[in-house]
Amino acid sequence: MEDVNAGQPRRRYHSPRRAAQAAQTRQAILTAARDLLAESGYPAMTVAQVARRAGVAVDTVYSSVGRKPQLLHALAETALSGTDAAVPAAERDYVQQIRAATAARDKIGIYAQAVARIQLRLAPVFLALGDAAATDPATTELWDDLTDRRARDIHRFAANLRATGELRGDLSDDEVADVIWSMAAAEYWVLLVHRRGWTPDRFARWLTDAWARLLLAP
């Protein structure tokens, strides 16, 4: 008997329940990796520990996320986006809000609040990544990519502020970006929030006030 389906592409089986379970498994793995990273650091963290903490098999970690460098990459991307997946900078909600705002101080306030939210998730990952990149060639490329992207994003923010006509005339966009770069860094967050006990809200208010005083024309 002739096969009437011969030569036709197979239809992919799609199960919403299976997709949801896969997403939950991936999230459990990333949560376990993030916790272990904070507890013991990147060199001491193993895939076996991540699997045990997440309650899955080691092979599940490999198939869902990958090896240690891929785990770190996924943690960094989800920390930046605030979602379960990577989101391009231009599509993030706070970036769209900054572009929609017309006053420089409003733009600064939106960005400062975003920095505080992001560093809650990103700071431990970013610092661990920097340490790992110094000795682990597999993470160096990721470190360079993230730092380069961060620099480009901050330069775009500086240009967006310049377009309001409210920045100090004696500062170049590079100087504006350098000020923002240093004070939005994970290291600065750790000093004030982790070491000095500031709340994220206080940190965001400080950035807003400090950047407005430093960067805007009187």
TrEMBL record:
Keyword Protein transport in record: no
Domain HTH tetR-type span(s) in chain numbering: 23-83
UniProt keyword terms in alphabetical order: DNA-binding, Transcription, Transcription regulation
Presence of keyword Transcription regulation: yes
Annotated region (Disordered), positions in chain: 1-21
DNA-binding region(s), residue ranges: 46-65
Domain of life: Bacteria
A Pfam family recorded for this sequence: TetR_N
Entries under InterPro entries matching the protein: Homeodomain-like_sf, HTH-type_TetR-like_transc_reg, HTH_TetR, Tet_transcr_reg_TetR-rel_C_sf
Stretch forming the signal peptide: none
Protein name stated in the entry: AcrR family transcriptional regulator
Lineage: Bacteria, Bacillati, Actinomycetota, Actinomycetes, Pseudonocardiales
